[in-house]
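Supplementary Methods, section 5.1.

A reviewer requested that the exact input to the structure prediction be made available. We therefore reproduce it here, unchanged from the version used in the analyses.
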Amino acid sequence: MTTDEPVVGRIEPATFPDGSIHWLETNKRPLRDSEGRIMGVLGTWQDITERRQRELDLRLRNDVLAALAYTAKELLQAADWRQGIQPTLKALGEAFRVSRVFVFERCRNSAGADCVSQRAEWAAPGIPPQIDDPDLQNMDLARVGFVSWQASMSAGQPVATLVKDLPEAERAFLESKGVVSVVIYPIQGDGEWRGFIGFDECFVERQWSEAELNALRTASGLLGAAMVRTRSAAALRDSEIFLQMSQHAGQCGSWEWDLGTNGVRWSEVMCRIHGLEPTQFPGTLEAAVAFIHPDDQPDVREGMAILLETHRFRDTEYRIIRRNGEERKLWGRGQILFDSAGHAVRVIGTSTDITERKRAEEERRRLEAQILHAQKLESLGVLAGGIAHDFNNLLTAVLGYANLALVSLPDESPACPMLQ
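The structure derived from this sequence is encoded token-by-token as follows.
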């Protein structure tokens, strides 16, 4: 009333006798005496605490919904959930108006014990961050005293509480981190809990509403889906690397033939087998067939026709001719794939370079032939040696008899010169 102007629709707090704070909408105007002096105030007030709370709840809900939409966009677009987590936590923290937002991931320590480690955090201005706190890395929940929390998360249930109401071990741990009120929600993925997301309140004893818990559950669901996708993508990359290494080691390339477009996709090893860089293959059926030796093309085409007709692939050996004229021998097999209506849509398969194996087999056959030939010569040598031995025995006997006859005859006998 110092301005001597009426006040209309002012909203201001008031402390009631029980200590509770209410919000009042007031209207005031000065009362004057006959000389125009202010002698009092005439006013009305209306308790709008519930209305104001509804307005705040509505504003909070809108902010939270916007933050959740942002969370979904960031996490679903990121190749790795860690790439989109920081702006996501900031959006959630500002929308919920909390002191901290944090994400812990389930892991195992060096001893193999089940643990959790803090992976990401957002802290409001003036709130000390805890992302580098060693107590929050490889933390054994049971050892620290959070056995009930671990049980709740395993059951997919949240934990929302005032720190002062917790048992001694849990209360002491959180109080040492400056936490007054906390809520966490387990992050589920593939049927098990993979960690948790939560809020810290460091100033007031905040009671977490059902709407806030539902919103946090939505955030944990989005994060769980992102974690599963990240792990699946990593596993796929690992399997592709392993497959590629295996194909390199075994000279086995993979291929895919789209029956609708006649497009053909070759793996890197398949391209290498044909003497190409991966970017040099045109990706058409005609280009693939052109590499096959002209004498082997009819057999390969027949095998493909049998596959499309009987859905059974005939393993085929065939030759290819690289662009440099080098001839290689391949062994191929495949499998037909169908859509939900039972129509054949693609053929996938592998082709293995067996050139060196074939050469080794030919060399083995050549060596076996040489050994067989040598064995035959050896047999002939043994036979010839036996014949010569027998002949020598006969000759010895003949010479013996001749010597006896020579001794028995007189020197002037005409037979002596012939026996000698």
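Residues 355-408 form the longest helix (54 residues). These observations are discussed further in the main text.
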